[in-house]
Description:
Layout: E1 8-9, H1 20-30, E2 59-60, E3 67-68, H2 75-90, H3 109-118, E4 128-133, H4 135-141, H5 154-175, E5 182-187, H6 204-220, E6 224-229, H7 235-239, E7 245-248, H8 250-257, H9 261-269, E8 273-279, H10 284-289, H11 292-306, H12 310-315, E9 317-321, H13 330-348
Parallel strand pairs: 1-9, 4-5, 5-6, 6-7, 7-8, 8-9
Antiparallel strand pairs: 2-3
Helix pairs in contact: 1-3, 5-6, 8-11, 11-13
Amino acid sequence: MTxxxxxxxxxxxxxxxxxxxxxxxxxxxxxxxxxxxxQLPCHPNERLLSQFSEGLPGIRGEGDNxxxxxxxxxxxxxxxxxxxxxxxxxxxxxPLEGSIFAFSETTGKGLNALLAAxxxxxxxxxxxxxxITGPFTMLIGLKDSSGRAVYFNPTLREAVVKALGLKAAxxxxxxxxxxxxxxxxxxxxxxxxxxxxxxxxxxxxxxASDLKEVISAVHQAGGLAGIHVCANTDWPLVLSLxxxxxxxxxxxxxxxxxxxxxxxxxxxxxxxxIAWGLVPTLNEEDLRNADTDGLLLRWQECxxxxxxxxxxxxxxxxxxxxxxxxxxxxxxxxxxxxxxxxLSMNIRC
Length: 349
């Protein structure tokens, strides 16, 4: 699917509000061309790991304190039930909607608020965006009952990756009822630690394989797959994946990614889109000091550093915050959204 967003503004996902309708209305004010469903991390079930762990076999706890109970007598039964439900969906015996891979009333409030908002407007957006925690971040962040990262438990690793694929496909399926073009970002903050001493022994090919499985699920459902990393990482690995959109912190890590200029150019030449995270959200002082003129200078550094035709970068670009704003004070979150929109308008004019 060809996608040339022309450097429109796009948000990453999270906002520091408690009400989904209010958060959705605020999001629509700044990014009506490509809206998304909002995540509100003030709710324990909408955090990085918890929102997408629902339905997994043996999962226990809530919020930031979830883990897999693998030592109990019911785990094997839960695992068998999980795969029965997985096969029922993938073989077309049971619908994806209403399955354990769909959002529930608890985890789907942001999605439902977006759908309600879309039904009140006449102009259809260019695209809609959903998001899911990427497999590497889930597998490193979740632990089993012994405290070991789930990545190192082959049984749970396979279950998590397959569940994430269907949870991403579910979003594509639901959002396509409103707009044909749907984008799903795989949020992968943990990839910043890949290759470090803390994660030594994790094969590069295994990380790529897990990511490709979830990306493939998005593509098979008819969606566009993006990956968001808000720090430095193994960029050749990321750019070797069959993603449609690369989202990164261009404010803080431009110099690092430009070391792989050839890979970036090949990505653009095959039709890839770069989401430039130019509005700083990872450091409150940077955001307080930021203004449109200064960010326009940073944008020009992106164009000059890549050394490509500026029309190509403009056509196959998106302008975003460097990361989500769910942990910021509300006034700064609103400033980040306003800067994102204003910067995009200035770049496009």
